[in-house]
Design goal:
Elements (H helix, E strand, L loop, with lengths): L7 E4 L5 H10 L4 E4 L3 H8 L10 H9 L3 E3 L10 E4 L5 E2 L2 E2 L2 H11 L7 E4 L7 H14 L8 E4 L18 E5 L2 H11 L6 E3 L3 H32 L3 H8 L23 H11 L5 H27 L8 E5 L15 H10 L3 E5 L7 E2 L2 E2 L1 E2 L3 H7 L2 E4 L8 H5 L4 E4 L9 E3 L1
Parallel strand pairs: 1-2, 1-4, 2-3, 4-7, 7-8, 9-10, 11-12, 11-16, 12-15, 16-17, 17-18
Antiparallel strand pairs: 5-6, 8-9, 13-14
Helix pairs in contact: 4-5, 7-9, 7-10, 10-11
Length: about 425
């Protein structure tokens, strides 16, 4: 390994790529990063992190050791290993692999003999071999499995998780050939504790989709149970508590105002798309989507009923949303259920404000919502407060003691004046 080479270049310096770089740096690897965002690159160059789980000090430590972020894809040519961590979202409800294709072209145009290329972005089975491989080979003139090594290793980043990170989360690795898989294992084995070798890239890609689809369908089940319990007067939170005491054959999931984040609402669409391509109908997924997409509308309906039962007109009512992020104690608002809830309330004429210590700005389309700086002030001014996210800063005792109506979508509050999902 030449001293002029870089051990690892990550393409895509977001919530997956940056933690990966930090972990590699901790083991002494020489690192660099490529991103098309000049803002991201400039921030990292100044020692600033834009990812909540990566402190500024970690970026500064990497920079001091020689890490550099750049918008110039030529940095890829210096790499012994290139890991692609670009987003795979939806456009008009359909899978969008434009970022993966663009990244593959940038890698291919700068690919060196013997380099290991790994795709970590989530996608449907066949992406590595049918989408990425042809682009790499065409743009480089090299052959995967002979001139360079190509692997797939699905990311398993869980933002805000203080127990499992890059090092101690088992890593699935697969190669387009057995030799490619061996190179992938050798690379990740340098900085990750446990590796799981998959039979092939399609199996590894499918495993990632199954992980998140399992959660999506399970959440849909408890959401539908919550809807049934609301209609029949059953305490769903007591039901879930009791069921959760079974030590076998049951995995606990919680209902909520909707499904958020980059993975859970998105990955099942990739699986459904793969099914359509194969002439297969994932009927369970269709039913799960119908239930999960219904939940924000249910929250809006419950809010409107609470106001009306209290003799307060929905139009002009002051509604405080507690929590705008998609999960507790993070700043990430991707696919957050707070968005359709706020949108529905605004369409009904309510005055909607929000409180979230982690989210400085939040908008519905072009309309920015007013952020309440102190939750006590917001509760004092509100006709109704809706607990959408159970951030650690929300003291149940103080919330229950407030004068306004309270709708709890997370099962965290108890009291005669509390309404639940």
């Amino acid at each position: 390994m030449s001293e002029t080479r870089t051990d690892l270049v990550v393409v895509g310096l977001g919530y997956v790529g940056l933690p990966l770089l930090v972990r590699a740096h901790e083991t002494g690897m020489r690192t660099a990063g490529f991103d098309i965002s000049a803002e991201v690159v400039a921030g990292l160059g100044a020692g600033r992190s834009h990812v909540a789980d990566v402190p500024h000090s970690a970026v500064a430590d990497m920079a001091a050791a020689g890490f550099r972020a750049t918008t110039d894809p030529a940095v890829i040519a210096e790499a012994d290993a290139v890991v692609v961590c670009v987003p795979t979202g939806l456009t008009d409800g359909a899978p969008d692999l434009s970022a993966v294709r663009a990244a593959a072209r940038s890698v291919g145009e700068n690919l060196s003999l013997g380099t290991l290329v790994v795709l970590e972005s989530t996608s449907y089975p066949g992406t590595t071999e049918d989408v990425v491989r042809p682009i790499l080979e065409e743009s480089s003139g090299l052959v995967a499995g002979e001139d360079f090594h190509l692997a797939y290793s699905p990311e398993r980043i869980d933002p805000g998780n203080e127990v499992f990170g890059v090092r101690n989360t088992p890593k699935v690795v697969a190669g387009v050939t057995p030799l490619c898989a061996k190179h992938g294992v050798a690379f990740y084995g340098r900085f990750i504790d446990t590796l799981v070798v998959s039979r092939g890239t399609r199996e590894a890609e499918m495993a990632k989709l199954l992980e998140n689809t399992y959660r999506y369908v399970s959440i849909a089940l408890v959401n539908e149970v919550a809807l049934f319990c609301d209609r029949t007067g059953i305490d769903v939170w007591d039901v879930l508590h009791c069921a959760g005491t079974k030590p076998f054959g049951y995995a606990p999931f919680q209902p909520g105002p909707g499904v958020g984040g980059h993975c859970i609402p998105v990955d099942p669409v990739y699986l459904e798309t793969a099914g359509v391509s194969a002439g297969f109908d994932f009927r369970t997924l269709s039913a799960a989507r119908e239930v999960n997409e219904r939940m924000p509308h249910h929250v809006v309906d419950r809010a409107e009923r609470l106001l009306q039962d209290a003799g307060i007109a929905v139009e002009g009512a002051r509604v405080l949303l507690l929590g705008a992020s998609y999960k507790p104690d993070i700043a990430d608002t991707r696919e957050t259920p707070a968005l359709p809830v706020a949108s529905g309330l605004l369409k009904s004429g309510a005055e909607v404000v929000y409180h979230d210590p982690n989210v400085p700005e939040f908008a519905v389309g072009e309309r920015g919502l007013r952020r309440v700086e102190h939750v006590e002030d917001g509760l004092r001014e509100a006709d109704l407060a809706i607990l959408l996210q159970d951030h650690a800063c929300y003291d149940p005792v103080r919330l229950v003691a407030s004068r306004c109506l309270l709708l709890d979508t997370r099962g965290k509050l108890a009291g005669e004046n509390i309404s639940h999902l």
